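HUMAN: Quick job: go over this next protein and say how the chain folds.
***
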Amino acid sequence: MSRIQLLSEEVASQVAAGEVVERPASVVKELVENSLDAGARRIEVMMRRGGISLIRVVDDGCGMDRDDALLCLERHATSKIRTGADLAAIRTLGFRGEALPSIASVARFRLSTRMRDAVAGTEIMVTGGKIDYVRDGGDAPGTQIEVRSLFFNLPARRKFLRTENTEASHVEHQLQLQALGHPEVGFVLLTDDRTVFQLPPATNLRDRIRDLSGRALADELLEVPEIAFHGMTIRGFVGKPGVSRSSRAQQIVFVNGRPVENATLNHGLREGYHTALMKGQYPVTFLFLEMDPAAVDVNVHPAKREVRFREPSAVREALVEAIQRTLEGDRAQWSGAFAAPGIKLESPVPEEPAPLSLPGMAEFHAPQAPILPLGLTQQFQEPYVSVTMPEDGNEPLQQPPAVRTPMSPAPVAVPPPEPAPKQRFRLLGVLGKLYVVMENAGGLVLVDQHAAHERILFEELRRRMEELGVPSQRLLMPLTLQLGPRDSDWVEQNLETLQKMGIGVEGFGSGTWKLDSIPQFVRSEEPQQLLRDIIDELREVSSQSSKLRLGEDVIAKTVCRHAVKANDLLREPELIRLIEDLLQCDLPYCCPHGRPTMIQISYLELEKKFGRKA
């Protein structure tokens, strides 16, 4: 007797349903996607007991005639594709023709549909995959689907469902994703006859985000200008530096209108923010990627949650470019507040200062009035701190402040003084020997002097390393290591980058590499493992970004030790120079560890606190 037998149609349908229908939220996702594909402008979802007892989805889409209504309950029956070539040009949310028959096989299923110009509609009742009746219906144009007693014929699957509140929260999250992806469509969600939210069609995405997540979050988002890159466009909103979450719950990315999860997208988002986020934190994003459907494969997961890109590196670089442009644009707007009209620099002429001796700072020579900004790049020979890479492989050390003796300046041709800027921030004082208090056109500003100095030193030292390279130390005995084909190919393509990072590596046969030098500031008892870790880390880095990821952690730790600390008293000229240098940084919002450097308190917030405005 043959041991291999064909499964019955009933069992085969239940197996297929197990891949598509995991929980009530899966049912809502599939039904709402069908409604969107049908051109619905209003979708209402009602559930009871977290969707276990009842799910009802009502839309005002195009509807179906009787033949289509019967055919849509057959497996692999769809109006979205015709041939295998259509799989490379999918522009709809659904396309497999599995959702409706899978849902109908594990529930008591009712379908009522009517086309706009039809006199009567069609009503079909299915129980556990078997049609009970087909008759005329009188519902409004569109489609109405009811799913009752989910998994009533699969008690084992029903036991895996969570509590009603948990399942209801998953349904709500799924509907919010669809509402974000289609702000032009109105959505209504009712739970146990209680309205959870009622979203009218929105004119733009920010309004939809405000409706779902509140005004506080919407005001903390930066709009990503539509950018075309490698044949794809990116638009949407991302959180300002420092706006983050401890999970990826609000890291939302749509690809051709479909919310998806993908490791390439996660790496691109993290790389775009880089030092603007603390470790363990994730950005808040609402991004939309539009690309050629042939460049993305959505047919890799039964629930269509995951996708695969033909050129993942191009997608990652596009994300990095879009986020960095957005942050740079916000930087220009943000720093512009310090030169907005209404605030005049009122700084008295300082007396000749006594020599300043602070930990982590070289001696300051306060300029005579008018005080001009002295950036680190302009005053390269006199930064706040001088950090060098020693030859013995130890950590970078601070050079002691140079001993200066008074000397008469050599006679030089003095150019006519440039007019001092008419508008600038106004220094008010220092709070708690750490927080610089100042006023700009936007209101009150608090600056963490330690975090600000960290950012200044970090960018200066990183720029030096990128220009001059990383000093390396040779190993007494070169080491060999065996790499797999993919790692070997990556090393061969990035030899120049590794050399710039101070890592000496060269081919030593098929799949074998010789390691003869490592960076001076790296202490590693296993250089082979170090190279493997570097390969894994740099694969996540965009080609447009700095490749010195290995050194950045060391730089951040070094400048943290050498930056001015709390209780370090800075005089007014030094504070002004600190702020001016911070405003010249590429990313002045936060320190290298992701903590904010400045906090802006607007006049509107102050007026609300004092009851002047509601």
Notes: The chain is about 30% helix and 25% strand. Residues 32 and 461 are 53 Å apart (CA to CA).
